[in-house]
Amino acid sequence: MTNSKKNRIKDKLFEYFGIACTFFGLVMLAIFIGNILIDGLTRIDLDFLQNLPSRKPEKSGILTAWTGSLWILCFTTLIAFPLGVAAGIYLEEYGKKSSLSSLLEVNISNLAGVPSIIYGLLGLEIFVRVFSLGNSILAGAFTLALLILPIIIVATREAIRAVPPSIRAASYGLGASKWQTVWHQVLPASMGGIFTGVILAISRAVGETAPLIVVGALAYVPFTPSSPMDEFTVMPIQIFNWVSRPLHGFTINAAAAIIILLLITFIMNGIAVYLRNKWQKKISW
Amino acid sequence: MFVVLKMLNKKTKMKNIVKILIGITTMALVACGGSGEKSNEKSSLTGNVKVDGSSTVYPITEAVAEEFRTVEPGVNVTVGVSGTGGGFKKFMRGEIDINDASRPIKSKEADACAEIGIDFVELSVAYDGLAVLVNPENDWVDYFTVEELEKIWNPDAQGKVMYWNQVREGWPNEELRLFGPGTASGTYDYFAEAICGKKVGTRGDYTASEDDHVLVQGIATDKSALGFFGLAYYEENKDKLRLVGVDNGNGVVIPTMETVSNGTYAPLSRPIFIYVSSEAAKKEEVNTFVNFYLESAPSLVSEVGYTPLQEKEYTEQRRKYNEFISK
Predict the structure, then answer these.
(1) Which residue of B has its CA nearest to A262?
(2) Taking a C-beta distance cutoff of 8 angstroms, is the pair A105, A92 a contact?
(3) CA atoms B126, B132, B136, B141: torsion sign
(4) Topology of A61-282 in CATH?
(5) Which of A24, A160, A247, B72 has a C-alpha 20 to 30 A away from that of B50?
(6) Residue A206's closest CA among A154, A280, A257, A132?
(7) Closest residue of A to B75, CA-based?
(8) Which whole-number Å values give the CA distances from A188 to A85, A157, A171, A195, A279, in the listed order?
(9) A255 touches chain B (CB under 8 A)
């Protein structure tokens, strides 16, 4: 066998290996979703979305859980988006290369890897107790915002770095200030990438349970939140609670709630992807 | 993600997304309207009752809170599940009104309460029994003595007591496979302390799972399995498992409503509690809730799978509480 033949076989082998790797995750996901759909799909109706949690699985609903999740999601985004993007812009456009900035950089990457329960403990001490926000939606949203900030910052920086330097040079050449360049050229051009980062970050936030339990999200809340200072529960906590109950009906409820949670994630993603595509179309150099 | 991406690339599909969004918004509006209507019954009380604590007690408190809404719709009862210890941490800061506890308060926790001037009352609300289970096809086990359970589960048995005939002579030379809740659960702590003694734990070479369904499946499909978990879970899976009685020196006792609540199923049954703080007891809505809790417990407790106290014990708990608030 010649060398080139051997190499071709290796090449083919790697190709198949790659395909197998790609499908491994997808097949697992398909099995999981299929399983959940079989268990839970028939359980979903309007009552399930409108009812309060109950000791009887068939009367139980997720009203407080999904409304709580939506509140948390909105406020987390409102807090994390401006902070994360502004930090990213500063680090990329304004920050000077120094030992301080490299220290900042290492720490931001490290923050992205901190276990989420640690953020929960931080949130409990700072937002719940020091800022005395109590076990409110706002405290939970601030905690989750901290959790996803590093992801947004990193994504923002990547997106900004992808804007060609010639655009900036041209802008300066026309006499624009730094801020004008950032606001009118760099940001619009990088918005697509920034949105992608935000999508990923929010998708992570919506599935978080541990930090919210630490911050004081509850398991049984008989009312829908009406202000950011209200107490709350979220979908993952409701699901976790149901999965650990002995009655079989609760397992079905959990599957149904998982479908709704996936739907919420997909819809949020859909909105964000739509916004991103819209931004990208606007750019024409 | 990819599916969503592709969908969005086609403009025609855009309309579907918009439709879904409109649907969601409508649902939100309907939902808000629904919850508003419920609260216009005649009622005098308003306010909040904050409960937190053990996940073991949670199902009972949830049931009581649910029923309480039909009596006092103006009062918002919220229930968390921080665990008994986590709940006490909040309790001694005065952050919650009532703590669900699957064990009595520790002296350290009681001291911390005293330090900031919180007095409290301990009320038993139900019994929690542990069930010892084998596979239905297991035809040799008639009962266990506490010593035999200790022989099987104590930490020194790890890697040594591996066959049924090592436990009692006459039992077959079959491999002994053990199942139980993970070490993080309150149920495990309780079993370990009741069987092997304080602070020694159990052997580690058993199949541990926090998911009781895994334990049920494990024992139900393995002829030489032995496991333990909450009696409530057994009640849900009666047909797949065989319950084994325990002899604590006073004869063999099988856990039932009766033997758990009169304390003869020892040492594997325990009372579970709620703790009410003196600060909270000053609030009318908390008082009403606690009284309602003790009144409705007999029926609700068994409905969610625990064993109620006897009638006279509930009367005693009510008396204890009323004495506490009149102090």
Answers:
(1) B1
(2) no
(3) negative
(4) MetI-like fold (1.10.3720)
(5) A247
(6) A257
(7) A222
(8) 12, 14, 13, 11, 7
(9) no
Q: Which of B3, B4, B46 to mutate against chain A (most A CBs within 10 Å)?
A: B4
- For residue B245, what is the enclosing H or E element? strand B242-247
- Chain position carrying tokens 């968390």: B80
User: Which residues make beta-bridge pairs with B49?
Assistant: B77
Q: What is the pLDDT of residues B220-265, one digit of tens each?
A: 999 999 999 888 778 878 899 999 999 988 889 999 888 888 888 9
Q: Taking a C-beta distance cutoff of 8 angstroms, is the pair A208, B70 a contact? A: no
The residues that bridge with A214 in the sheet, in sequence order, are none
Beta-strand pair B269-277/B120-134 = antiparallel
Q: Is B29 exposed, middle or buried (0-12, 13-18, 19+ CB in 10 A)?
A: exposed
> Hey, where are the domains in chain A?
3-43, 61-282
Taking CA–CA distances from B232, the nearest residue in chain A reads A246
Given CA atoms A129, A131, A137, A143 in this order, what sign does their dihedral have?
negative
End-to-end CA distance of chain B: 62
Q: What integer pLDDT is reported at residue B54 of this predicted model?
A: 87
Residue of higher predicted confidence among B34 and B295: B295
For residue B164, give both structure tokens: 């049924």
* Facing B31 at nearest CB: one of A213, A224, A274: A224
Q: Which helix (H) or strand (E) is B207 found in, with range?
A: strand B207-208
Q: Around Cβ A149, how many Cβ atoms within 10 Å?
A: 22
Q: Which two three-digit tokens encode residue B43?
A: 């009622």
* Residue B75 DSSP class: E
Interval B176-219: pLDDT, tens: 999 998 776 667 888 998 999 888 889 999 998 877 788 899 99
Domains of chain B, first to last: 45-127+271-325 (3.40.190.10), 129-269 (3.40.190.10)
Q: Is the ipTM of this complex over 0.90?
A: no
Taking the C-alpha atoms of residue A263 and residue B17, their distance in angstroms, rounded to an integer, is 12
CA gap A236, A206 in Å, rounded:
8
CA distance B162 to chain A (A): 30
Amino acid letter, residue A35? N
CA A175 to mean position of chain CA atoms: 39
Q: Smallest Cβ distance to A50: which of B30, B65, B236?
A: B30
Please compute Rg for chain A using Cα positions.
23
CA atoms of B75 and A264, how far apart (whole Å): 30
Instruction: Give the model's pLDDT for residue A284.
Output: 62
In contact, B101 and B274? CB cutoff 8 Å: yes
**Cβ proximity of A253 and A242 under 8 Å:** yes
The pLDDT tens digits for B26-64 are 444 444 444 433 444 455 788 899 999 888 899 899 999
